[in-house]
Amino acid sequence: MPSSATPLPGKPPRVFDRDTEWQALIAFACDDRGEARLGVVGGRLRQGKSYLLEAVTGALGGFYFTARQGTQTESLSHLAGDFARYTHASRPPHWHGWEDAVDDLLALGDRRPVPVVIDEFPDLVRESPALPSLLHSAYRRHDGGRPGRARLLLSGSSLPLMHRLFGAASPLHELSDLHLAVHPFDHRRAARFWGIDDPVLALLVHAVVGGTPAYRHEFVRDDVPEKREDFDAWVCRTVLDPGTPLFREAYHLLREEIDHKDRALCHSALAAVATGCSTQGQVADCLGAPLTDTARCLGLLREHGLLHGEADAFRPGLVRLRVAEPLLAFEHAVVRPHRSALARRDPAAVWKLARPDFDSLVARSHFAQVCRDWVLSFAGPDVFGARPTSATHGSLPGPADPGGAEFTADVVVRGHGGARDGSLLSVGLARWDEVMDLGHLERLRGLLAALADRGEDVTRARPACYSGAGFGPALRAAAAEGHVVLVDLDRLYGLG
């Protein structure tokens, strides 16, 4: 462990947030125990892994190497050149293979703990499949000891390959002392990162670009909408402008993650989910594709972290799908149907046609997801009477009201224990652009009655209304009497 007498370097001001990740990396890199150690850093593209790792090596005088796609000989040559510059050698070392390179990298920690970063490690493994085994052997050499104090950090954005390399079934897993995932910023951190104080504007921007930090600086050149009235113009001059990197980013994400032979079907599947198909069967019907092909495509998207699947709160056997990256949802629900027009017409004219789809398909579903995220990340045990452990969409099978429509809930909150996935703490409706009133509360009470008829324990369940437009006076009065939990944008963003 780090020596208590040696202060750990503070996070540079240029690194926004990431306090937990910084502390974990610094503690690992400064661990003074006399053996080499291995750490793994993963996460989707554009989340700032490289930025963070470069800051760590800069603060501690460590070695940083970014792998790139190329042959083994070329990769070793690039690594040797960087190694020579770091060690101030007169010429690069002549390595016969990866075994020599790994030995020299670990030897950097002979005198002190030093971070040694290989970024985008999977790019090396694709051309050198034996590299993980060579690495394992180097750490197991000398009767299982790991001499030296090198702190090797292997980073990668290819989630499936990172899982295969460092998952629980991998030989490298037992050698890894650190497993760190760098995630997108949540909605509150994203608002601070973009410097947006208005929660309406913050959520609209988050519905387009999510919490991916790279999009603000590298992709829109720090173009931030000043007020909500500027949002439409901001969309037109950034994500709808063919001259900006953000315009093609959604397609780049799939091209970098998905093989060419699967890409077309994956685009269509993402479009189906983004426009309202939430189950595998619905996606297959929308695509007109065999269920087996659809299942393989959806599995591929989920494996790469581009699609999430969660069990329905009331029907655990039914998996509800949603697009993981907001920019992908925005692209496939809003922009994709108008791409050809954007090459010929002014973006403002195209956005005028596409804005209703953004409001009805993207903003509404994104608001509901932000509400679910808020429950898990920010709602304390006092809000629902216990600490939430899950917040998901829920629906009852078959017609459940006199009109023949299903009862659905956008935010179903469960805690520990209970007969199903956990005790039912709350059922809620989320309405982005609708002022909510007593009618919504009555709908929730009807849902709770239907659940009770089906054997669900609803004694602790609190109705909840989540709105981006506000609440009527009667509903506010009901909340004051403790009959319903109200969550508005100020509460979601910690402003009230």
TrEMBL record:
Question: Which superkingdom heads the taxonomic lineage of this protein's source?
Answer: Bacteria
Q: Which InterPro entries match?
A: P-loop_NTPase
Q: What is this protein called?
A: GTP-binding protein
Q: Which organism is it from?
A: Streptomyces bungoensis
